[in-house]
Design brief:
Layout (H helix, E strand, L loop, with lengths): L2 E8 L4 H21 L6 E7 L2 E7 L8 E9 L4 H11 L7 E5 L2 E10 L4 H15 L19 E8 L2 E2 L3 E3 L4 E3 L3 E2 L10 E2 L3 H10 L6 H18 L3 E2 L3 H7 L7 E6 L9 H12 L2 E4 L5 E9 L5 H30 L3 H4 L7 E3 L3 E2 H15 L8 H10 L7 H5 L6 H9 L4 H9 L14 H20 L13 H14 L6 H10 L3 H15 L11 H22 L5 H8 L7 H15 L2 H24 L15 H22 L3 H9 L2 H10 L7 H18 L11
Antiparallel strand pairs: 1-3, 1-7, 2-3, 4-6, 5-6, 7-8, 9-10, 11-12, 13-15, 14-16, 15-16, 17-18
C-alpha cells in the first residue's frame, strides 16, 4: 500500500523542543488519519535541528465508502417533526424508507457516502497538522500572520511517490508542497528531490544528515568514548547533555580538546558546569575519578584534519575565556570569609510574608540546634554554625554566575576559611535530597541542617496558606516533604514530627502568626469560640502532618508498600514517628500475608459489619465493656478470655515496639473468633445477652485497634 512522507523544513528548532515535536506530529497525523477512515500500518517520526519528518506506511488510496442509517419519527408523525428529520439528513420523503417495528412504522434514512480520494484528504491533514502542532514558544516572521517555532522554509509532502496537491498559507506568502529538500547547511546546501522515504533517508545521509535522533546519540557516545579511551580517560556520564547535543547537530563529529593548566585549580564542579552550561562540552575523568584537563566537543562538520584542528583550537579559545571568568569569581570570592557575607543576606528576599534569607537563616540555625538532640552523634554547636553559613554563598560571584552550584561552593569557601569538615559538608548538603534519585545526607550535622531548612520552608508556607493545589507546587513543598521523609527514614531517626513542626513554627515572627491566625479562624470560626485564641502551632502541625502522610504513601507505594496499611496505622492515632510507623506497617503487612492474619481480618470485618448494622438500629455505639459473668456458651467465654490476653499482650508489645509480638498476640484471636461465629448467635432473643455479645464484638475492635485501625484495611 502507498506511503505518506512529510518533512517540515525550518530554521534550527531548539533542542529541548525537538523530541516532543516529533511525537506531537506523529500523534496529530495518526489521529487525523484514523478519524478520516484511512487505516495505516505504521508511523514513525524523525527530527533533526532543521527538520521534522514523518513516514506513514500502508495508507489506502481511498477512503472507504460509508453507509449511515438513521431512524426518524413515525410515518404518521406531525409534519413539523418529519420536516425536521428530512432537513437533518438532506433527503426527501420519497428517498426515506418506511419500516415496520414492534413500536409502529418509522421513517429510516439510509445515507451512502462515497469515500474520497486519499490524496485530497491527506493534503488537508498535512495543513491541519502543521497549524495545530503545539510549541512551547512560537514566532511570526516577515509579514506573515502564521506562527511557528522558527521560520518555515518548505513542506515536503509525498504520497505514493508523488507530490500532494496543496500548499501552506503563511499569510504573506504560500509554500506549495514539494518533493525537494536540502541536506547539511554547509556541507550539502543544494536542494535535491526524493521519491519516497527510503530514497529520502539515503540521500540525506549522503548529504551529511543523520536523520535518526537515536543514531546521532549512538554516534556521539561511541566516538566520544573512543576518544576518551585513546587518551586513557573516561567520559563523564551525562545523559541530559547527550540529549541536548544530539539536537544541535545533524552530522555529529566528536573532537577532543585541552583545558589550560591554570584553570585546573578551580573546583571541578565549576569547570564541568561552565563547560556544560555554556559550551555543551563533555567532561573527561582520570582513572582515579578526578577531572581530567581534557574535554569533548561535538562538531557539526565532516572530518578533515585541518578543519578539525581549527575547530578544536577555536573551542579551546572560547573555553579559555569562559574559564577565565570562573577563575576570577573563584579568586575574588575566596578573598572574603563566608561569615562576613552573612549580613548581606538581609538584602535577599526569601518570600514576602516570610521575610529575608537572613531571617530564614536565624530560624534554621535555632531549629538545627534543637533537632541535633534527636540525631545520634550530632554536635549541636556545629549544626547551628553550619546553618548560619549555609546560605552565605548566595552572595558570591560564583553562585551569581552559576546558581546551580549554591551550597557546593559554600563548602569550598568554608574549607578555605578553615571551618570544620563536617560544617563545610553540611553547607554543601543542606539542600539534599533534591529528588528521589539524589543522595540523602547521612552525616549527623548535614542531616540536622537539611532537616531544619526543609521544615522551616514547609512550616512557613503552610502557616501562610501557600500550599500545593492540584498539580501546582510553585515552592516545591512536595519535594521538601519527601526530603524530610527520606532524611528521617534513611537515617533511622526517632524524630517526633509534631514537636519538630511546632518548634519550627515557634521561630516565626508576628507577621506569620497573624497570617496563620487569619487562615485558621476563617476555617474554624463556626466551631470555635470567636473570643478564644486558636492554637496556631497545633493547627499548622495538623495540616502539615496530613501532608507528610500523603507524601509518605506516594513514596512507599513506589517501594511496594500498601497505602491502606499506612492509613490503618495512622488512624490508630498519635503516630508522628515515621520510623516506628513504617516498622509497624511492615509487621502488619507480614501478618496479613499469613493465614491467621487473613482469617482474622475477615473475622474483624464480620464483627464490624454486625456492629455497624446494630449501632445504626440502636442509634448508639456499642462500647468495649462486656461482662464475662453473663456469658452462656463456652465459645464466648473462650473468646472473651482470649481478647483480654490479646489486649494486655498487644498493648505492652506495641509500647515496647515489639511489633512482631503484637502480631502474635492478635494471631491468638483467630481460632476463638472463628469458633465464636460458628457456634454463637450474636443477635440472641434475650436483649441483655445480645447487648453483651455486641460489646464483645466491640472489644474486638478495641483490642485490634491497639495495633491499627483494621477497618481501613482493604480486602
Amino acid at each position: 500500500m502507498p506511503e505518506l512522507l512529510i518533512e517540515l523544513f525550518s530554521e534550527e528548532i531548539p533542542a529541548r523542543m525537538q523530541a516532543r515535536a516529533a511525537a506531537d506530529l506523529k500523534k496529530l497525523v495518526s489521529d487525523k488519519l484514523a478519524a478520516s477512515g484511512l487505516a495505516f500500518e505504521r508511523a514513525e517520526a524523525f527530527v533533526t535541528p532543521r527538520r521534522l519528518a514523518l513516514v506513514v506506511d500502508g495508507v489506502p488510496e481511498k477512503q472507504p465508502d460509508v453507509k449511515d442509517e438513521r431512524r426518524g419519527p413515525k410515518a404518521d408523525a406531525p409534519e413539523k417533526a418529519i420536516q425536521g428529520f428530512l432537513g437533518s439528513t438532506g433527503l426527501t420523503l420519497e428517498q426515506c424508507e418506511q419500516r415496520e417495528t414492534p413500536k409502529g412504522t418509522f421513517l429510516f434514512a439510509v445515507i451512502e457516502t462515497t469515500g474520497r480520494d486519499a490524496r485530497a484528504v491527506l493534503s488537508e491533514i498535512v495543513v491541519e497538522a502543521i497549524r495545530e502542532l503545539p510549541w512551547p514558544k512560537s514566532m511570526r516572521w516577515a509579514k506573515n500572520s502564521f506562527r511557528w517555532v522558527r521560520p518555515l522554509h518548505h513542506v515536503l509532502a509525498l504520497f505514493d511517490g508523488k507530490v500532494l496537491d496543496g500548499e501552506m498559507d503563511l499569510g504573506d506568502w504560500k509554500l506549495p508542497f514539494t518533493d525537494t529538500t536540502r541536506g547539511h547547511r554547509f556541507l550539502a546546501p543544494e536542494p535535491f528531490a526524493v521519491t519516497g522515504f527510503k530514497d529520502y533517508r539515503a540521500k540525506l545521509s549522503n548529504a551529511y544528515v543523520v536523520l535518526d535522533r537515536e543514531e546521532r546519540k549512538r554516534i556521539i557516545s561511541n566516538e566520544a568514548n573512543q576518544l576518551a579511551a585513546t587518551a586513557r580517560l573516561t567520559l563523564k556520564d551525562d545523559p541530559g547533555l547527550l540529549e541536548e547535543v544530539c539536537g544541535l547537530v545533524e552530522w555529529p563529529v566528536p573532537l577532543i580538546g585541552t583545558i589550560d593548566a591554570e584553570f585546573m585549580e578551580v573546583p571541578p564542579e565549576v569547570l564541568v558546569t561552565s563547560m556544560r552550561s555554556h559550551q555543551k562540552y563533555f567532561a573527561l575523568e582520570n582513572p582515579d575519578g578526578t577531572l581530567a584537563d581534557r574535554f569533548v566537543v561535538v562538531a557539526n562538520m565532516a572530518h578533515d584534519p585541518k578543519r578539525d584542528a581549527n575547530i578544536i583550537a577555536g573551542n579551546e579559545k572560547v573555553l579559555r575565556a569562559r574559564l577565565s571568568d570562573a577563575k576570577f569569581f573563584w579568586d575574588q570570592d575566596k578573598a572574603r570569609t563566608l561569615e562576613s557575607r552573612i549580613p548581606a543576606l538581609d538584602d535577599v528576599k526569601f518570600y514576602d510574608t516570610l521575610g529575608t534569607v537572613a531571617d530564614k537563616v536565624e530560624r534554621v540555625a535555632k531549629l538545627a540546634r534543637e533537632l541535633a538532640a534527636f540525631i545520634p552523634g550530632c554536635d549541636a554547636g556545629r549544626a547551628e554554625r553550619a546553618a548560619r553559613l549555609a546560605k552565605a554563598d548566595l552572595t558570591t560571584g560564583m553562585v551569581g554566575e552559576f546558581p546551580e552550584l549554591q551550597g557546593l561552593m559554600g563548602r569550598y569557601y568554608a574549607l578555605n576559611d578553615g571551618e570544620a569538615a563536617e560544617v563545610a559538608n553540611a553547607v554543601a548538603e543542606h539542600y539534599s535530597p533534591l529528588g528521589p534519585r539524589d543522595a540523602c545526607p547521612s552525616a549527623p550535622v548535614s542531616v540536622a541542617v537539611a532537616l531544619a531548612d526543609k521544615l522551616d520552608t514547609l512550616v512557613g508556607f503552610f502557616a501562610i496558606g501557600e500550599t500545593p493545589t492540584g498539580s501546582k507546587d510553585p515552592f516545591a513543598l512536595r519535594r521538601a516533604a519527601l526530603g524530610v521523609i527520606r532524611l528521617v527514614t534513611e537515617n533511622d531517626l526517632r524524630l517526633p514530627l509534631d514537636d519538630a513542626i511546632k518548634a519550627a513554627f515557634d521561630g516565626f515572627d508576628s507577621g506569620v502568626r497573624k497570617a496563620a491566625r487569619s487562615l485558621i479562624v476563617a476555617r474554624f470560626e463556626k466551631n470555635e469560640d470567636p473570643q478564644a485564641e486558636p492554637d496556631l502551632a497545633f493547627a499548622v502541625s495538623k495540616d502539615l502532618l496530613e501532608f507528610f502522610v500523603d507524601r509518605l504513601k506516594v513514596q512507599q507505594r513506589e517501594q511496594g508498600v500498601r497505602h491502606d496499611l499506612i492509613t490503618a496505622v495512622i488512624e490508630r492515632g498519635g503516630e508522628d514517628d515515621l520510623v516506628r510507623l513504617l516498622a509497624l506497617v511492615a509487621a502488619l503487612s507480614a501478618f496479613l500475608e499469613t493465614e491467621d492474619g487473613a482469617n482474622l481480618l475477615a473475622g474483624f470485618k464480620r464483627a464490624s459489619n454486625i456492629l455497624r448494622a446494630e449501632e445504626k438500629k440502636a442509634d448508639t455505639p456499642f462500647t468495649d465493656g462486656f461482662s464475662a459473668a453473663e456469658f452462656v456458651e463456652p465459645e464466648e467465654r473462650a473468646f472473651g478470655a482470649a481478647l483480654e490476653i490479646a489486649r494486655e499482650s498487644a498493648t505492652s508489645s506495641v509500647a515496647q515496639e515489639n511489633f512482631s509480638a503484637a502480631m502474635t498476640a492478635l494471631a491468638g484471636l483467630r481460632a476463638p473468633i472463628d469458633a465464636f461465629f460458628e457456634r454463637v448467635t450474636v443477635n440472641a432473643d434475650d436483649p441483655d445477652l445480645r447487648v453483651n455479645r455486641l460489646r464483645l464484638l466491640a472489644a474486638v475492635r478495641s483490642v485490634m485497634g491497639e495495633v491499627a485501625d483494621f477497618s481501613r484495611i482493604e480486602g
